Amino acid sequence: xxxxxxxxxxxxxxxxxxxxxxxxxxxxxxxxxxxxxxxxxxxxxxxxxxxxxxxxxxxxxxxxxxxxxxxxxxxxxxxxxxxxxxxxxxxxxxxxxxxxxxxxxxxxxxxxxxxxxxxxxxxxxxxxxxxxxxxxxxxxxxxxxxxxxxxxxxxxxxxxxxxxxxxxxxxxxxxxxxxxxxxxxxxxxxxxxxxxxxxxxxxxxxxxxxxxxxxxxxxxxxxxxxxxxxxxxxxxxx
Length: 238
What we know:
The longest helix is centred in the first third of the chain and has 13 residues, at 33-45. The strands form six sheets. A six-stranded mixed beta sheet has the order 4-3-7-8-16-15, sandwiched between helices. The protein is α+β, with helices and mostly antiparallel strands. It has a single domain, classed as Vaccinia Virus protein VP39 (Rossmann fold, 3-Layer(aba) Sandwich), CATH 3.40.50. The chain has helices at residues 33-45, 62-70, 129-139, 198-204, and strands at 9-10, 16-17, 54-56, 74-76, 89-93, 96-100, 114-120, 140-149, 160-161, 163-166, 169-172, 178-181, 184-189, 192-193, 207-217, 222-234. It comes from Thauera sedimentorum. Pfam families: Methyltransf_11. Residues 97-148 form the Methyltransferase type domain. This is Class I SAM-dependent methyltransferase.
C-alpha cells in the first residue's frame, strides 16, 4: 500500500495524518482505501446474481477499470461541464478515446435501465443532490440498488450547506472547499458536508432500505475512521 500526504490534515490534539480514505493506494490494482471499501461492500453485502446492467458515475479511474471486471455491461460517465448535454460522448478527450458526459440531476438514460448504480465521492459536488437521488431512483429497476461513498460527518444530524447556486452563480456560505477531480486540474467545489439526514433524503426520493455501513479494519486495508459505504434500494412493486 502506498501512502502520501497530498490531502493530509490535522486531527484532534493537532495530530497530523494523511487523508486515509484517499491514500493507502494498492500498488497492483490502483484502488485507494475508499474504493476498496465500495468493492468489498458490493462483493459481501449486495446480491449481484441478478445484476445485468450497472452504471458508475466515473470513467477515467482505476475503480472504473476494476468494476468493469465485475460487471461486463458496465456504463461509466464523467461530468465534463455545463456546456455538454447528458449522453454526449467526447471522442479523443484528453488523450482518452471515448468519455461519456452525464449530469446526475438530468441523466440521459431510460427509466428502469440499470440494476445497480454506483457513485464514489460525487454527491458533495452536486448542488441539488436530492434531484440526483430522484434521477438515480428513476433509472434503477425495481429492486435495483444505489451504492455510494461520500465525505460523511457522523457528528452532524443535519447536512451543512457550504455553497449553493443562485441566479448569478455560486453563493458561498462557508469558505470554499475544493476537492480533487480526476478530469479537472482546478478540482471541484464541495457544496455540502453530509450528515445523518441524508438517509431521510434517500427515502424521500423513493428509496427503501437506506443505510450506512461502517468500514474500518487495517487488516483488510480499510483505513480512515469512521468511513461509511451507503446503500439504498428501489422498492419492488407489491
